[in-house]
Design a protein that fits this description.
alpha/beta; 9 helices
Length: 257
Amino acid sequence: MDSATAVLQALVSNENAGLVMDFDGVLSRITDDPDASELLPGTEEILASLATKLSVVALLSGRPVSFLAARAAIPGVELYGSYGLEHLTDHGIEVVHEVREWTTAVKEATDVLHRALDGMDGIHVEDKSLAVAVHWRRAPNRGSAMKLIAPLIREVIDVHGLRHEPGKFVEELRMPLEQDKGTALRRIINTSNLQTVAYAGDDRGDLPAFEAATEAGGYTLVIDGPDIAPEVSEISGAHFNGPENFQYWLRRLNDAI
């Protein structure tokens, strides 16, 4: 039995099972314009159906939860943004208490990056509510863009005390809290008393969640892409050749339950 089928059968056979997924590169294609990211056609219907069959279906993204809500407000699907610092509930957006002392630092760092980089060809500063990211995927020369960005990122980190999180042609500055996708996934598992869980991701920011899923006796679903980081490609578990292939697996899972 291949690993993807083994995960499918584990989710089908356990009464209290959960499926938690990243958004970009997993349910959406990676786009040159971060704001253009959206669910693949047909995925919304699959997730809506799965949410009626599994104990938990959730999205856990580095994007703000407001971004997820605008693109994936699906009945029954839980939304966690900013690496789990934000959770969309029936009463609005709940945030982890510790974020309050760092909101000013994030805003000031965001302002500095906008002043320095706005207007640069192919470089985009993304406001992420509780973090800020600099993208250079669209830069004419990615190497030159990275050399321009790197010293500015170091300076902002030194001045504002934020934490550096590299990604696929992106540098992200986050609050230096002991919170990541791993701690968020553990909260989801514990809160819902999940017997088994599978986590799907594609980038370095997903590594803590992969670890948390494995520690809980769960499963890892890795969506491979042309720019995948070596440490992510080496994760053991089920591997999928892009979001389209993963969507096919989601459809199989939905049909099997």
